[in-house]
Design a protein that fits this description.
By secondary structure, the protein is an all-alpha fold. The chain contains three helices and no strands. 62% of the residues lie in helices and 0% in strands.
Length: 145
């Protein structure tokens, strides 16, 4: 399991806070425009919350750009929320792939009696060791196909 909280700089310097402010000023209006356009395509109307989303993000970005001392709390809050969402979504996707893809394939292989790893345990065998083929020589390292 990956932990997105490990990748966050919890003591950001001024350059990182400026980048964060700029991303708020640019990102939220773009996100609001995309959401508003999608809503307008579906209903021929743009809801008020779209304008609020874009203007609030731009205002917070502008405020943190002009007053850098206000940026760290917004930076921390933003990363806590997004890392939590990322942690939940990534674990959900991994679990879904495991239970919806890998488990059915394994059950199907078991049902038809196929054992790709050749793990048969035969009581008559003295050992389960299988001899590996000897390598051809060091030249084979130069032709990897």
């Amino acid at each position: 399991m990956m932990n997105p909280f490990n990748d966050v700089n919890w003591k950001p310097g001024p350059p990182e806070l400026r980048i964060f402010s700029r991303s708020l000023m640019i990102g939220f209006p773009i996100l609001a425009s995309i959401l508003g356009l999608l809503r307008w395509i579906r209903t021929s109307a743009v809801p008020d919350w779209v304008l609020w989303l874009g203007s609030t993000g731009f205002a917070i970005g502008l405020l943190t750009r002009m007053l850098p001392r206000l940026a760290p709390p917004f930076y921390m809050l933003w990363h806590i929320v997004t890392c939590t969402i990322g942690l939940v979504v990534s674990n959900t996707v991994v679990a879904a792939i495991y239970y919806l893809v890998i488990t059915p394939v394994g059950l199907a292989l078991r049902a038809i009696g196929r054992d790709p790893l050749d793990r048969k345990m035969l009581p008559k065998d003295a050992t389960y060791w299988k001899n590996a083929a000897k390598p051809e020589g060091p030249e084979r390292y130069f032709r990897q196909s």
